[in-house]
Each structure stands twice: as structure tokens, then as C-alpha cells.
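Handout, page 2. Input:
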Amino acid sequence: MQMEVGADPSEVGRARRWARSRLAGSGIGLDEPLAETLILLISELVTNAVVHTGCPAVLRMLFPGTGAAAGVMAAGAAGTVRVEVADISARPPSRRCAQGDDTGGRGLELVDGLADRWGWHREGVGKRIWCEVDRGDSLWTGAFESQHAATNRA
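Output:
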């Protein structure tokens, strides 16, 4: 499954809506923590592509056991979802060091913290950045349980 993304920051919202519609048909419930993690990762990768390169991009989501996805993820976990964003800019992704109240510069830090694996490689004149999330290993599962339980005690 892939979507062409224009070189406009407003396309990030369209990419999120597209991804939600694909998740709904993949067996991943929109209320699952994995779904929200994937939407956040997609938002960050697409934002980086359109804002930092000024180029159009292609977003792909690959689910376990679906055609090309099975071959791409043969080495990964059985429940791995892969997200890829390809663009035509030769400029490699680079981490920025956001300070205190900065409103940007944390995208790749989020990707690094949320994805089980991520990376990038040159492709033709551009590049492809990718990340993978293993279903069932979401960082968000149970993240707020103890706080929730503590605030509901009588």
C-alpha cells in the first residue's frame, strides 16, 4: 500500500488519514496502542520528508503476510509493520538537538524511541527512510496503568 505525498506540510494530515484507513483494514484496531504509535511515526517521517526536503514523497505501509511485505520483513518479527517514506532529495536525514522550548527538531528522536528498528538508504537520486514496529511490543502498552490505578483509589 502506498500513497504519493505532495511537497506541502498540509499533506501530513492527509497521510495520517490515509494510514488510519489502511490500519482499519489490516486487522490492527484503531484503538490499539500500536495504531497510535504507527500514526505518530508516519506523521514524523512524512513531516521530515516534505518540510526538510521540499520534495514530494511516497509513503508505504507494509503489513505481515501481505505480498511484498512478507518478503521485506522475512528477517523481522512475525507481527512487524514497516513504514517507508521515499523522496527524491539526496540530503540524508540528520538528527537535530532540540533545546527546551523548541517546537521542532525532535522527529528522529521520536522515531528512535518508538520504532523497534529504523534506518535509511540511498535509492536512485533520493533516499528511503524506514521504521518497523513489532506488534505486541508497543512501548505504550501499560504505560499509564499504574498512574491510572493510583488516581482511582478510594
